Amino acid sequence: MKLYIKQPVLSQDDVKALMNAQGKFTSAGVYRRGNSLTDRKARSASVKQIHPKNFPQVNEKLIGLLTQFDPKATSDKYYVKEYNYLIYNVGDHFKWHRDVIKAKDNKVRRFSTTTVLSLSDDLEGGDFGIKDGTGFEVNVNLQERDTLLFDSNTEHQVYPVTKGKRVVLVAWIYDK
Questions:
Q1: pLDDT digit string (tens) for 116-167?
Q2: What are the counts of helices (DSSP H) followed by strands (DSSP E) for the chain?
């Protein structure tokens, strides 16, 4: 199995629709179990939750990447359950973590995607790092409209943005 798949899968119209999606932005942090406080040292960004049911064409394209990643991962076994629209401004980041969780309905996040919707012309920092099975870090250069698909149990991070702005859609693919 590959470490990740990277390719542009969304059209300009898809990107425009996602960026114009209605919703309220909140501060994105990492919630510690049993604690209502957000850990902004581990993660900072602005987040807007968008429901995937409003974007069936995007879901289809994200699911379509699965067979390139793992030929055994057929689209009839998975669905897109969650979207986060994230804006990383100067200082925003997400330290090393894994996305795998079991939801209240006992469904498990199997795959994670990050799609770059917009990068400011002056962007510095905000690079995406991912670790292979041996702990070796790979820095993945993502351009606008690139989607990165990887196993949700893979360690990854977003380095701090030092200048400009990075806007991404993060989507998680679950077992059906």
A1: 999 999 999 999 999 998 999 999 999 999 999 999 999 999 999 999 999 9
A2: 3, 15
As given in the structure block, the two tokens for residue 71 are 């030929």
SS3 13: helix
C-alpha dihedral, 169 to 48 to 112 to 146, nearest 10°? 10
pLDDT tops 70 at residue 48: yes
More confident residue, 113 or 47: 113
Q: Regarding beta strands 146-151 and 5-8, do their DSSP bridges make them parallel or antiparallel, or are they unpaired?
A: antiparallel
- Residues 56 and 63: beta-carbon distance below 8 Å: no
Q: What is the per-residue DSSP string for 40-79? A: TTTEEEEEEEE-GGG-HHHHHHHHHTHHHH-TT--GGGEE
| Cα–Cα distance for residue pair 153/176, rounded to 1 Å | 18
The answer to whether residues 161 and 92 touch, using CB atoms and an 8 Å cutoff, is yes
Instruction: Return the SS3 of 130.
Output: strand
Residue 101: band (very low, low, confident or very high) from pLDDT cuts 50, 70, 90: confident
